[in-house]
Amino acid sequence: MNALGIINFEDNTVEIDGLGEYRPVPAMVFMGRYRIIDIMLSNMTNSGINSVQVYCKEKPRNLIEHLGSGQRYNINSKRGKLRVLYGEKMFSSLVYNTDIENFRLNMQYIERDPNPYVVIAPSYFVYPIDFTTVLKQHLDTNADVTVLYTSTNEAKTSFLNCDVVTVDKEKKITAFGKNRGNTKNRLISLEAYVMRKSLFIDLVEKAANTSSLYWFKDILADSVETLNIRGYQVRGYVACLNTLAEYYRNCMELKHPGISAQLFKADWPIYTQTSDTCPTHFSREGTAKDSVIANGCMIEGEVSGSILGRNVKIERGAIVHNCIIIGENVIGKNVHLENVVVDKYAEVKNIDKLVGTYSEPVYVKRRDRI
Amino acid sequence: MRSNNMVAMILAGGRGTRLFELTSKVAKPAVNFGGKYRIIDFPLSNCANSDISTVGVLTQYESILLNSYVARDHYWGLDTNDGGVYVLTPREKAQADFEVYQGTADAITQNIDFLDSIDPEYVLILSGDHIYKMNYAKMLGYHKVKGADATIAVLEVPMKEASRFGIMNTDKDNRIVEFEEKPANPKSNLASMGIYIFTYKTLRKYLIEDAKNKESKHDFGHDIIPQYIESGKNLFAYQFKGYWKDVGTIDSLWEANMDLLNTNNELDLADNTWKIYTEDVNALPQYIGPDAEVENSYITEGCVIEGCVKNSVLGTNVKVAKGARVIDSVIMPGTVIGENANVTRCIVAENMKIKDGAKYGHKKSEHIELVAKSGK
What we know:
The complex is a heterodimer of chains A (370) and B (376).
Chain A lengths: L2 E6 L20 E2 L3 E2 L1 H10 L4 E5 L5 H7 L13 E5 L13 H7 L1 H6 L4 E6 L2 E2 L4 H10 L4 E8 L10 E5 L5 E6 L7 E11 H14 L5 H7 L6 E5 L5 E2 L3 H11 L2 H7 L16 E3 L4 E3 L1 E3 L4 E2 L2 E3 L2 E2 L4 E2 L4 E3 L2 E2 L4 E2 L4 E3 L1 E3 L4 E2 L4 E3 L6 E3 L6
Parallel strand pairs in A: 1-4, 1-6, 4-5, 8-12, 14-17, 15-18, 16-19, 17-20, 18-21, 19-22, 20-23, 21-24, 22-25, 23-26, 24-27, 25-28
Antiparallel strand pairs in A: 2-3, 6-11, 7-13, 8-11, 9-10
Helix pairs in contact in A: 3-6, 6-7
Chain B lengths: L5 E6 L20 E2 L3 E2 L2 H9 L4 E5 L5 H8 L12 E5 L15 H6 L2 H7 L3 E6 L2 E3 L3 H10 L4 E7 L9 E5 L5 E6 L8 E10 H13 L7 H11 L4 E5 L4 E3 L3 H10 L26 E3 L4 E3 L1 E3 L4 E2 L2 E3 L2 E2 L4 E2 L4 E3 L2 E2 L4 E2 L4 E3 L1 E3 L4 E2 L4 E2 L8 E3 L5
């Protein structure tokens, strides 16, 4: 596919409490062994995109370590390229740290790429997508920009603060707006765009000249009158991980193989880095039900309705119900956890009970000792 | 090759006939173990962890899978600039007839040109079909301190079993004075593990001599080591302590898998300082269903458990359907256990389809049943 892939970072409408304090959204652990970015990056490489730039808003350490050279994602180590890019001087400024500013600071890498098209998408929307079919529609419709969107009837509770689009009969986008949660049925923009690289560069410059607080989505919204912006509807599984509650709810739903098979498809593999952990060990006392469990765990207690990341130890008598345990954790003897998200390396040992609710799970900090 | 100046040569040509259908299409070193591993992952990971960067793997029997598997040296982090895994199969040569490897020593002799091109000071000879963790760097240190020409790793075995092994008789300095292959009346219980470190220059000389000897079986234990002893070379025994298992039979392969269920097992695959590396598969973490019963088991990625699993080891992507019971068994990767099927004291080979309601094995059977055909 003759396109440069750009994995954009999310704007300030996305805020995953707790987890988000320690790593950018793309680097968050997802379904026990993945990171959120694995989905979009695999989408791009499965579509035959061999050159990908990952833009990072802040805290790049985690992300750089996870992505490596890209070989794991089937990027050819000679011909292809996976770059993690960030706007160094912008790290300290929350307001000025826009995607536009980051693109401009790294413009030489965008310009130098020989591909005539760009595919831009953030990682916090997770769904399987073959970009070759998007590019084909883009060319067939003679569009200037093609915008991916999904149709939902749960806009009152999900996709809050996401962009919405209005499309006419020809799938031409006539307006962008915001989902404030007051209407059930909405068309949600997935903030994923396909266009000519030259147009992309022009729009970046135009945005910068308009306002230094502009994001790419802002200049696109300004251009609905002047450009031929078309919609491409993504059918099938789409989830938006923009708050802790939504992250929790979507992960809980994805536990079931019937649901996860819609995102992790047999013919559309999702790649990640291996950490060479041994299989999970259930002791004589350990039990699990309705749970997703990564490798390296030691289960001596009772686990139900939960997602366990790598190397989690559930000690005897512990009860872990409807929880997400991120990885490298110890849940001590007789501890009872319900609707809790336990961040990496945290150990919960000296407490009898910690209970949240499904819509408001309790968050236990990274490296915390409770 | 890094500063230790040692190349490892893994003998992986063995068929493993006592594993029956498990080795009908793959060599024994490629047989699955512990849910996600293949047996050869152990010596390869030990090499990586012992800072050995160049490894030759000598393959012969049914080697297609094994050759392509070990050639992916990045699985074990061996894809460095100065090292790598080299697949060494028998080949046609300009100056000699095409010959398969006649014995363990002949396999090395036929690759003297490879070793010369790397020019190592030491050669480590390993077997591709044992389960153990060992730091070869420490053994090399011992080899150097002793000023040895050859060092042989030995393991203490129960005296009553010693007649099943190649036994090293040593003096008080651990110098090997006699080697006896499967002695009827063993004088010691130090069994050879088939792990040797040779100083290459000397070994090269002995191999070339041995190749000329028409009486020789061209085998390290049978020919080379006795030659070393006879001519008064410095041979030392290096005593290994820890878990070591030759998984040559269905029963012993099953036992070694079952050892993983013991929380205090010496092999300790969860030890992060000495990981065993293997192929990474694109599989979701395991899913344990709402009606599943799992107890005392070792389960890996990609498994979906809806039935009952007890005292068992399950490989990657194994599915256990509703009402199925898997007891005291080893299920190899990709196998599906149908609804209400019952598998007890079995090893089920890779990618089998066990039909709904089928029954295999018995809880009081003397031997472990091998299930290597789909159906029933």
